[in-house]
């Protein structure tokens, strides 16, 4: 029972203890029509402005609006926030908000033992229990023993708060996510102000809806304040982040912004050829808004046209991009070979998802590394990069464009569904933080040869319309220098080796591999791509326990940084956690004859730091 | 807004300047030679600069074409020439972009790009050399091979119904659709010039004889003896007259064309061709399905619709006028931002 005190006028007032936490993880879950993504992103925006470091992960079904109340229609949004630097959306939620029985059933297994559950008790009726395949009501049958369950009649309370303002019953019910949000704001001692402001702006043209949402939000907050159900509240102080301006950014947003920034840095018009595919489509959506940057987006008739239009635009002197996910990547491979043969700059962004085939469209995986490095006919090398965190997608996109232009080559940038939809605060760069990645076009007919090479082994970029440089390129093998078609056996070998040498030369233009932690130790955890956060968190925990461990995160996967082998040889053992069955591990063995322990996870779910920590601890114990 | 190349009084180049230094490797006697010659003769008459022409191709015998032109050229991959050309034209609207493709390249593996380019209406000129056979892969049947055609992959005869490329282009809402042939140089030159001058996507089906794998496929329409009675040339505003003695004509009975004898009918009874009519184009494109009707040549359809790249540029311009030119630092700072101060 909550403590109460008697006030001067004789009323009883509840006293709620505020518990200071270093970090908290909460998950909102409900029907895909319940507005859980919105609720989560509002909590995120408020928390970001409160100065916490944070990391988020939405989890939504592949179906857009699965039948309500069903297990496969559950949509979730997880947020981890802290007073310290954090790297992942959290291992296990401390609090689960479940708007219906299905949401409870799907998410309960992830909750930490003893965790809090707030349920909308109104939704636990016979029909919803049946849809969620509960034989008995979990709120009554004792199956939630071991958790702290708060049954809140969210639907009834929202209805009561909005009664008489002129909204339909359906509209009133739709506001209940704001009630849940308000309650969570009270519970975590957050300000209502950012969301109130957002509601006012978002629904400026729908004053009734705005008022309904405002009232629901306030009602949720006041419910926390007034009810005697909750005995404590939580507070997470602001984190000590580097000074500067921040915004919260998802990986796909950061990629789109990186594309615009790359065009500015290259001083070139930009072009995106793309075909809608989950989870990459947001990049196309974002970029289609940026017409004021003279950026051209082309929604193509298929994946192949997506890349082929981009190749055409690159030939015409644009900085060209194509964005896709695994299955689309497979369709683009022949055209990537054409870009390799014609030596045109192009950035191919693969937002990886679970495969093979259609696989798990909305779930992340890192299983396209082989496809990126090896996926074409013939000897077809190209640089492959991978982003490590949502905000890092911005920088790696510019990096991919820089390499594509400098070396006149297609470049593959790998992100994944976890980075794409996850978010983190991003310290915004200033103009002077951005590199100049521009290169000159060929213009001088007296020296022009289509396949002559500079010190980077890169060929000239001669754009149609330039007088005197008329020449032909294409998929057939080209004669060194002259660029005419050549079937000469020795020329083909020479050109294959030349294209390979050019890509290896990228090593001279990329930073050395860095290490987090000691340069020599018992164990290095070696990763790439979106598992960065989980590996870093696990490494920090192991270091806090005094273990001899380091984290090596590879952003340049082909070619590897020059010093990678010597870096890796500084450790007695290597652990390679990957969301595939060991692709990086395979490449390390192939390149360096270095053995590593694999930690494979192909469940459509990102690693939890604890999984990596446990695997690492096991290796360290055995040494 | 004009997206046509800068016109110049003196192009400063001749057909000869358009020959590249590459040896031509088509089989001797191939219809492609004539098409190459007619294009080289036509380009200098268009009043454009040589560096503004780009030829993009896919895969097949016809797709070797760019290598034989001393212009900018891009030999793409199978079926994708139109996609490459669309991207080039979107990004660089000042170029005069040509696609050289074949019946297999354009209608089989590249069919999807073809129909979508038609409806999107890029200002590109698609020249489809139709030899009704896969020649570079040595003689398999193609999507335009006739029913029953015996080829290396259909030794008992093709069992599928062929595409009518002109009809497909009209159905896909192409704004300029024409048919010509390798053995009628003058008509081919005129048709190519009209295609070049059309603002929007132009599609020209060119009957092309493959003397190795499908020799004589078009003899009925090209041989002096049979041509007059088996072809009809469409001319805007003129009645449809054909035959050795100009003694036959086409009239419409409702929606159905009829061949009539001019000794029995007046020229005034005949169908007067209107190249801006989609309905007529559709009827005439179907006409040769019926035995006894001539094969139509010429421009079936020529209508105006905004081009994709013009619309793209217009939209960008309108947004810039409304919102101002993009400012990257402002863009990054859009939405919820917050400041962390030095501690």
Detailed description of the structure:
The complex is a heterodimer of chains A (623) and B (343). With 623 residues, chain A is an alpha/beta fold. Chain A folds into 3 domains: 13-236, Pyruvate-ferredoxin oxidoreductase, PFOR, domain III (Pyruvate-ferredoxin Oxidoreductase, domain 3, 3-Layer(aba) Sandwich), CATH 3.40.920; 247-428, 3-Layer(aba) Sandwich (Rossmann fold); 521-622, 3-Layer(aba) Sandwich (Rossmann fold), CATH 3.40.50. In chain A, 36% of the residues lie in helices and 21% in strands. Chain A has a 7-stranded mixed sheet, with helices on both faces. In chain A, strand 14, helix 12 (326-342) and strand 15 form a beta-alpha-beta unit. In chain A, helix 6 (176-187) crosses helix 8. Chain B has 343 residues and is an alpha/beta fold. Chain B has a domain at 16-217: Rossmann fold (3-Layer(aba) Sandwich). Chain B has 11 helices and 12 strands. Chain B has helices at 32-42, 81-91, 103-109, 111-120, 165-171, 185-197, 219-222, 227-230, 278-286, 308-323, 328-332; strands spanning 53-57, 72-75, 96-102, 124-130, 176-181, 202-207, 231-234, 241-242, 248-253, 256-261, 295-302, 337-340. An 8-stranded mixed sheet of chain B has the order 2-1-3-4-6-5-11-7, with helices on both faces. In chain B, strands 8-9-10 form a 3-stranded antiparallel sheet. In chain B, helix 3 (103-109) packs across helix 4 (111-120). Chain B starts with 31 loop residues before the first helix and ends with a strand. The model of chain B is unreliable at 1-9 (pLDDT under 50). At the A-B interface, helix 1, strand 11, helix 9, helix 11 and helix 12 of A face strand 1, strand 2, helix 2, helix 4 and helix 10 of B.
